[in-house]
Design a protein that fits this description.
The chain is α/β, with parallel strands linked by helices and 470 residues long. The chain has two domains: 31-99 and 261-459, Aminopeptidase; 114-246, Glucose Oxidase, domain 1, CATH 3.50.30.30. The chain is 34% helix and 25% strand. It has helices at residues 3-12, 20-23, 32-43, 50-61, 71-85, 144-148, 173-178, 180-191, 231-242, 295-314, 336-344, 375-385, 401-410, 424-427, 443-459, and strands spanning 89-112, 116-118, 120-122, 134-141, 159-162, 196-200, 226-229, 248-270, 272-285, 319-328, 350-355, 363-369, 391-392, 414-419. Strands 1, 2, 3, 4, 5, 6, 7, 8, 9, 10, 11, 12, 13 and 14 form a 14-stranded mixed sheet that branches. The model is unreliable at 1-24 (pLDDT under 50). The structure holds zinc ion (2 copies). One zinc ion binds at residues 285, 297-298, 331, 357.
Length: 470
């Protein structure tokens, strides 16, 4: 046992004023005063709903904001102005080089066995068709696995259709199991000589509404247009297949790809004191797809983490480590902001990185991804969240996309506050991602959870990363 820990235990022995269950900690890593503040942060009941006000303002004053679009610099200006007005320190915008993609008009029709227009959208990063469009017979695959397993020449010169279904789930695992059809479908289709790929939307709704999202090409293979059709349209294609009716599709997809542009990571801080060089990072992404308003993805995350940091700022107690809000550039089409941040700040010690990017549902679980020595500390943190209805999870967490980049690239300790995503993929990446999908009443619980996590990470006498000794 270190001298420092004995000292803390000695201090702890005098913590008679705290409720008994709070004294039942295995390894006291926080002072009595710090733990009292955690309670105050968790149980605060502000009359405003700052998280909701912020997302309302973002989607109303800026709207959808793809990286490299005309709305992108307006979003950055919006964030800088809001964060300054809220009273944060060191508010700035770090430039990030992005490859922008622009979606133009899309039309997708079945021309045989009868004429029928489908509801469709281009997948993010997709090339377009020739100006006059293209028409070909469809090669149907029930899922990505069956396409990958196909060693025949059935897909050659055809439009591959992948009918991958997305299961509804609270934790997003249904999306995780389906999304590779969107990401990798074009590569698998091109490998088999196809002229385009169309997929069933990666979504759980039954609306005639198509879901976009990122996809990749293999530079060694032909780049073929990639699009998604609505779930009911995919069901029709499935039935036509079942009835043995060959389907011919005509596509006209206009896009621009690989446009050089500059976006920005927007940063704001609540400065620390004795450990101010160490960072506790609360992230969200500022960009969205071109469809909808980017309300649940990820305007609400922007609102939640800014409001959580504001609660620390207003808490009146000095922080040991610096809490830094990072609103990442271009999460959607390449994680450019996260990658740039991880490289730019590689030498700076990060105590914990987390991101809110799973909609507006309540948090129901906390998982970590930290050095093994820090797991007991994270388990204690989870106990402080329990009264918010949050379960303690394992140390095998998968922090949201931008935070995940940093956990993998820099081995920084990560945290996942798992939100209820049961409905998230009904609206995700569609024209229905609009403000009305957010229940304002679920946001204060998110804000409380992130503020407690950030506070305890900031004040801990233990480091959560590879050198856990304080
Ligand atoms: Zn997102
Ligand atoms: Zn997204």
């Amino acid at each position: 046992m270190t001298t420092k820990r004995r000292h803390i235990l000695g201090f702890w022995a005098g913590a008679a004023l705290l409720p008994q269950h709070l004294l039942a900690q295995d390894i006291p890593l926080w002072t009595e005063s710090d733990l009292r503040q955690a309670l105050a942060l968790r149980d605060a009941t502000p009359t405003d709903n700052l998280a909701y006000q912020l997302v309302d303002s973002l989607v109303t004053e800026v709207g959808s904001r793809p990286a490299g679009s005309a709305a992108d610099p307006r979003a950055v200006e919006w964030a800088l102005a809001k964060l300054k007005a809220l009273g944060f320190s060191n508010v700035r915008a770090d430039p990030v080089a992005v490859k922008a993609w622009r979606a133009g008009p899309v039309s997708v029709d079945i021309t045989a066995p009868f004429a029928h227009r489908l509801v469709a959208t281009a997948l993010g990063n997709s090339v377009g068709t020739p100006a006059g469009g293209l028409e070909a017979e469809m090669a149907y695959y029930p899922d990505l696995a069956s396409l990958k397993a196909d060693t025949s020449d059935r897909a050659k010169s055809r439009i591959v259709f992948i009918n991958q279904k997305t299961e509804r789930s609270r934790d997003g695992s249904g999306y995780g199991g389906a999304v590779m059809a969107r990401v990798a479908g074009a590569v698998e289709a091109a490998r088999r000589g196809a002229v385009a790929v169309a997929i069933r939307s990666i979504g759980t709704d039954r609306d005639r509404l198509a879901h976009t999202g990122g996809m990749r090409y293999d530079t060694q293979l032909r780049q073929v247009p990639a699009l998604a059709v609505s779930v009911p349209d995919a069901d029709l294609i499935e039935r036509l297949q079942r009835y043995g009716r060959p389907v011919v599709m005509r596509l006209n997809v206009q896009t621009e790809t690989g446009l050089d542009a500059t976006s920005h990571n927007v940063i704001a801080e609540v400065p620390g004191t004795d450990l101010s060089d160490e960072i506790v990072l609360l992230g969200a992404h500022l960009d969205s797809w071109h469809v909808g308003q980017g309300a649940i993805d990820d305007g609400v995350g922007v609102g939640i983490v800014c409001a959580a940091a504001k609660r620390l700022l207003d808490g009146g107690k000095p922080l040991r480590r610096t809490v830094r809000v990072v609103l990442f550039a271009n999460e959607e089409n390449g994680l450019s902001g996260a990658t740039a941040y991880a490289d730019q700040y590689k030498a700076v010690r990060h105590q914990l990185v987390g991101e809110s990017d799973f909609g507006a549902g309540k948090v129901w679980r906390m998982r970590s991804k930290v050095h093994g020595d820090a797991v007991p500390a994270l388990q204690q943190m989870a106990r402080w969240l329990a009264p918010l209805g949050i379960e303690a999870g394992d140390n095998n967490g998968s922090p949201a996309p931008d935070a995940g980049v940093m956990v993998r690239r820099n081995q920084w300790p990560g945290i996942e506050l798992t939100q209820d995503g049961t409905d998230y993929f009904d609206w995700h990446h569609t024209d229905n991602d609009t403000l009305d999908k957010i229940n304002p009443d679920t946001l204060p619980q998110n804000v409380a959870a992130w503020s407690v996590v950030a506070w305890l990470a900031s004040q801990s006498s233990q480091r959560f990363g590879q050198s856990p000794a304080a």
